[in-house]
Amino acid sequence: MRSGCRKKPTAPTLSAVLALALTFNATSAAAQTVCGQHATDKPLYLTFDTGHMAIAPLVSEVLSRQQVLVTFFLANEKTKTGGSSLDAEWAPWWKARVAEGHAFGSHTFDHHVWRADVAGGFVLRPTAGPQTGQNQTLTAAEYCAQIQRPATWLHTTTGHTMGQVFRAPGGKTSPALLAAAKACGWSHVPWSPAGFLGDELPSSRYPNAKLLQQALNNIRSGDILLAHLGIWSRQDPWAPAVLEPLIVGLKAKGFCFATLREHPLYAAAFMLDARKK
Pairing mode, if any, of strands 43-49 and 38-40? Predict the structure, then answer.
């Protein structure tokens, strides 16, 4: 398992995801959006968290070929080339994704995984950066600064303004953590149960063919889908085998793809005048 990768969602995360699913069911009309030029009531929201980045060129090629826009959640994670996902080596790749029209959110700069609430703040364990693997206690303001750093990097590097959405590493949160993030302007984005695409699960138990068929069978309209730009532990890489067949198969079932800019719960977080640069 890659450093700091998400395991199965904790109970609070599952509750949040189930609440999101109920929202979609109760307000199906509100889930209508525009994918490309066609109005549809079957949108999907494909999202990618950063990772070791070795498959990032392949992912961008598939997305371009299939004309699919996604939402990327940025953290400065270790890469297979010895750098980090937000270093100078990867700046041109991110600039190209901005030019293509993808959307962006924060994954916390040092990929801080929530561990516990404590008086005055939170215990978190970064899986990137100078204090990798060490528990830290951050105040609410310090945690907000961690969320903000990828947004600042993106704007400085590309001139693009990030939406005020973030995904907690591992999907691990607490009500207090979410409240602190909300107080400084950030909306948390989980994923739908069927949208957990399984690219960080062990290949021996979850081969690519199984993951592909499971996703094609279970994904429903309005789902937020989760994948990564490289998982260290996955022996049978997910994206080369699954990503394009998954997109093609879902399109054949009448689904289309939109970014979180078009999502009924998160569209407001992408308003330019709501951003703090």
Answer: unpaired
Q: Which residue from 99, 49, 102, 91 is spatially nearest to 74, judged by alpha carbons? A: 49
Distance CA 124, CA 101 (A): 33
Written as six digits, the tokens of 156 are 């400085």
Compute the distance between CA of residue 272 and CA of residue 177 in angstroms, rounded to an integer: 25
pTM of the model: 0.86
Regarding the domain delimited by 11-24+41-261, which CATH topology (the fold level of the hierarchy) does it fall under?
Answer: TIM Barrel (3.20.20)
Lowest mean pLDDT among 36-45, 222-231, 256-265: 36-45
86 contacts 155 by C-beta, under 8 angstroms:
no
Beta bridge partners of 124: 114, 136
25 close to 267: Cβ distance less than 8 angstroms: no
Q: What is the pLDDT of residues 152-188, one digit of tens each?
A: 999 999 999 999 999 999 999 999 999 999 999 999 9
Residue 74's CB is within 10 A of a number of other CB atoms, namely 26
